[in-house]
Amino acid sequence: MDGTRITRAALRMATPLAALALLGATGASWAQDAQFAADSSATRVVPEAAQPAFQPSEAAHFENAFVRFAEPVEPSLPDHAVDITTIEPAEPTATPIGPGIASYYGRKFHGRPTASGERFDMNALTAAHKTLPFGSRVRVINPRTGASVVVRINDRGPFVRGRDIDVSRAAAEQIGIVRSGHGRVELELLDS
To answer: Which pLDDT belongs to residue 71?
Structure first.
């Protein structure tokens, strides 16, 4: 190679960057249309005059990509679709357990572990029962006032004869048995 003429074979053997450097150094007239193969792929050399005068920045590309999403579009629903946001949640079915005596426990046991492993919180709506599974939800109703509360079973008890359920202080306040310490109640087991 004499520096003024570069053969196509030399361009094919050179790497793409080296081939561009060789073409730029020689100023060969045919360089604008030259094609060469490197790593089994052909690359076309494009003269600067053929390149667009303005190249938008990446930020401009990014901003333009989301222009069509600027106006929110309400999705269309098929005719058979049901809007679940307007459906009222079904009232859980209640199975009466029967009448009983409820008492409550509070500050003395606050923070101590329960039989389920949870810490007892006197401000939560929880209760202790001798046989119901942990996690069961029970509606406790004061038949004298009609006040009721739904509690979650997380402990075992009560261990006092004649008592059927021990509720937390917060639950006892809702059904109005804090003053007396205990009271006659109706119990219902909720299905969910």
So the answer is: 67
